[in-house]
Amino acid sequence: MADWKVSGRYLEVCNCEAICPCIVFSPPTSGECVAVIGWKVKQGHHGGTDLSGLNVAMVATSAGNMKDGNWRVALYTDAKATEDQAAALGAIFSGQAGGHLENLGPLIGEVLGVRSASIKLAEDGGRFSMSIDDLMSGQYELIEGQGGGEVRVTGHPLAPVPDVPFTVGRSDHFTFNDYGIKVDVSQKNAFAADFTYQP
């Protein structure tokens, strides 16, 4: 197994009400949860392959409670990536390379596909945006907490980033249409956090 490490920013939008009940093993708001996760790799490598500046995204959906597994997932790797970079991103963010994401593997029931896409992840103060080709679009803003601070969640059992506080937001809009999965909602849950993964 190659030596690897990636770090940067994690963004997520889903179709549940804020704060998403799935994270504490409660049923999804509408009976089905659809989440799109984006990772902006600020620094990273896989062996001798530099991964800095690349983006990755994943859609994960469950027909019922997320804790029960049987997730349907698809992975998107940055269209700017070389063949070696795309293979490395696929290995890391699918959990095949080990690390924390490997722990989520038993919850996955079906892999819908892995493919290249133009993935855009942007952050401006407390506002965030994500897009995957013309398949997905999301914009959201952090929810203001006490004293004008951030609302944070930490230690939730389904956290894709362990031991890191997640800031909570609410979407202006969230649309997704791929693999027969369709979402078009607004004013729903969103998260942001720093991440670091390594074996």
Principal-axes geometry comes out as globular
As residue ranges, the low-confidence spans are none
Can you give the helix content as a percent range?
A: under 10%
Number of helical stretches of at least 4 residues: 1
Average pLDDT works out at 96
Spell out the helices and strands N to C. Answer: EEEEEHEEEEEEEE
Question: What do you see in this structure?
Answer:
By secondary structure, the protein is mainly beta. The protein has 1 helix and 13 strands; from the N terminus they run βββββαββββββββ.
Structure keywords:
199 residues; mainly beta; 13-stranded mixed beta sheet; 1 helix; 6% helix; 51% strand
Report a brief summary of the structure.
The chain contains 1 helix and 13 strands.
Furnish the topology, listing elements before pairings.
Elements: E1 4-14, E2 33-46, E3 49-50, E4 55-62, E5 71-78, H1 83-93, E6 108-117, E7 119-124, E8 127-132, E9 136-142, E10 152-153, E11 166-178, E12 181-185, E13 189-197
Parallel strand pairs: 5-6
Antiparallel strand pairs: 1-2, 1-13, 2-3, 2-4, 4-5, 7-8, 8-9, 9-11, 10-11, 11-12, 11-13
